[in-house]
Amino acid sequence: MDKVTYLTRLEQVPQLSCSEKAELAPVEARHAFRTNTYYLGLIDWSDPDDPIRRIAIPTKDELADWGRLDASDEHLYVKAPGLEHKYESTALLLVSDVCGGFCRFCFRKRLFMDDISEVSRDVSEGMDYIREHPEINNVLLTGGDPLMLPAERLDQILAELRTMQHVQIIRIGSKIPVFNPSRLTSDPTLLETLQRHSREAKRIYLMVHFNHPREITLEATHGIALVHKAGVITANQTPMLRGVNDDPAVLAELFNRLSYIGVAPYYVFIGRPTRGNKHFLVPVEKALEIFEQARMNCSGLAKRARLVMSHASGKIEIVGRTEDHIYMRYHRAADPGMKGRFLALRSNPDALWFDDYPEIEAEYSTENPFRCYGPE
Question: Does residue 262 contact residue 228 with C-beta atoms inside 8 Å?
Answer without folding.
Answer: yes
